Amino acid sequence: MGGATQQQLHLLRILLSCRKITAQVTKPITESIIAIASTTEPEFLPQLKAKQNRFPRSHNFMDAKIAARIGEKLGLRLKELGVLNVEIDFNEELLRPVHQQKLVRPIFQNVKRAGINISGAEKLPFGG
C-alpha cells in the first residue's frame, strides 16, 4: 500500500439569508448533518420578532451579535460530539458578498473559541 491517505474532515457550511442564519456541520462522504445551530431556534425568536415589528422596517434581521451566538452554540455542540476539526469550502466562502462576510466572521471566531479548529478559515481575507 502506497502513501498515507488524507482523512477528509467534517464540512462546516453557513447558510445566510436576510431572515435566517444556519451553521451546520456534515459528515464526510454521507453528508449527513451532525450538528446545527440556527436562528430558527426558540432562543432567537423574541429578538427576531422585535426586529420585524420595528419602524422603519429593515429587510435584514441578522447582526454580528446573533451570528456570534450561532457560532458559540455550534462550537459547544461540536465539542460535545467530540468533533474538534472541521473544514470549510474555501471557494464558497471567498465568493461570499461583503455584507455576508461580516456575519460569517463572528461565527468562525466563536466556533474557534470553543476549541474547534476550522481548516481553511485562516486563508480567508476577511479574517475567518
Overall pLDDT? 86
Low-confidence stretches: 1-6
Radius of gyration: 16 Å
Indicate the CATH architecture. 2-Layer Sandwich
Shape: globular
Characterization of the model:
GO terms for molecular function: 5S rRNA binding; structural constituent of ribosome. Belongs to the universal ribosomal protein uL18 family. Helix content is 37%, strand content 20%. By secondary structure, it is α/β, with parallel strands linked by helices. It has a single domain, classed as Nucleotidyltransferase, domain 5. It has a five-stranded mixed sheet. Strand 2 and strand 3 form a beta hairpin. The longest helix has 18 residues. The chain is globular and about 50 Å long. The relative contact order is 0.19. The N terminus is likely disordered.
State the gist of this model:
With 128 residues, this protein is of the alpha/beta class. It is built from four helices and five strands.
Set down the secondary structure blueprint:
Blueprint lengths: L9 E7 L4 E6 L6 E6 L6 H8 L11 H18 L3 E4 L1 H5 L3 H16 L3 E3 L9
Parallel strand pairs: 1-4, 4-5
Antiparallel strand pairs: 1-2, 2-3
Helix pairs in contact: 2-4
